[in-house]
Amino acid sequence: MTVTSHTETEIASQPACWSRAAELAGTATLPRPGERVAVTGCGTSWFIAQAYAALREAAGHGETDAFAASEAPLGRSYDRVLALTRSGTTTEVLDLLRRVGGTGIRTTVITADPDTPVMTLADEAVVLDFADEKSVVQTRFATSQLALLRTHLGEDLTRAIADARDAITEPVPAELVRAEQFSFLGRGWTCGLAQEAALKMREASRAWTEAYPAMEYRHGPISIAGPGRVTWMLGVAPDGLADAVRKAGGTFVTRDADPMAELVRVQRAAVERAHAQGLDPDQPLHLTRSVILSP
């Protein structure tokens, strides 16, 4: 009997989670137009922060920077810090919020667990408890945050949700399960998604993965393209890039789908690769649900 992992169940729940997150966007306390905002997180949350920062600026809502929580330059003048943390216990995020406290900068947190220290450190909190996960590997919480934030910026996620349903039901091609190496590419806001796609493949299946802005790929990284290696575009590919990868003997993957739904396809491929190698996609090697550092 085939046992479904928590990760697979959580991946499949994403369309429903995105719909619920979108419904919250009108009432959640999130960055206002015109505010200068720093968005921060660790790991997956840092990459979602990068995607949101690019989207917010492109939408004309104001200057928005994304930083790993451990590297945030707090000497700059921001109106608001938006912290993303599934667990609400990540050491670097908590330390950052403590340092911001009392400076006059508003702080907002998006988290999955309302019973964690982060709730007392932020001025406002948005709780997506319905998107919390049992798996160490983040899938639905990360994308539900982005669904919330995209909707708050005025986007309609109808197509994204429909594309995600397709991504969940389509079989994973065998060549993606067998591939030796993956390079994920993005443009604008999808550069963050490309980084997240690479992380998911590394975490779940210990794959050799890299991520780049799409226009940078021909400035060196294309040297590793070849048979058994995949270049996977999230978003619209630059002209000529697919041909260049194929000429090098590599496989180029791209679809006319919402990039967030394409990330769902990457998540599913990562799980299939984990199973093929006898790995547990719920419990990646050397990882825990939250990084809590000793004092």
TrEMBL record:
Gene3D superfamilies reported for this sequence: Glucose-6-phosphate isomerase like protein, domain 1
PROSITE patterns, A to Z: SIS (PS51464)
Is the Kinase keyword given for this protein? no
Which Pfam families does the record cross-reference, listed alphabetically? SIS (PF01380)
**What keywords does the record list, in alphabetical order?**
Repeat
Keyword Repeat part of the UniProt annotation: yes
Which positions fall inside the SIS domain?
A: 27-167
Concerning InterPro entries, the annotation shows: GlmS/AgaS_SIS (IPR035466), GlmS/FrlB_SIS (IPR035490), SIS_dom (IPR001347), SIS_dom_sf (IPR046348)
Superkingdom of this protein's organism: Bacteria
Q: Would you tell me the protein name for this molecule? A: SIS domain-containing protein
Query: Which source organism does the UniProt entry give?
Result: Sphaerisporangium flaviroseum
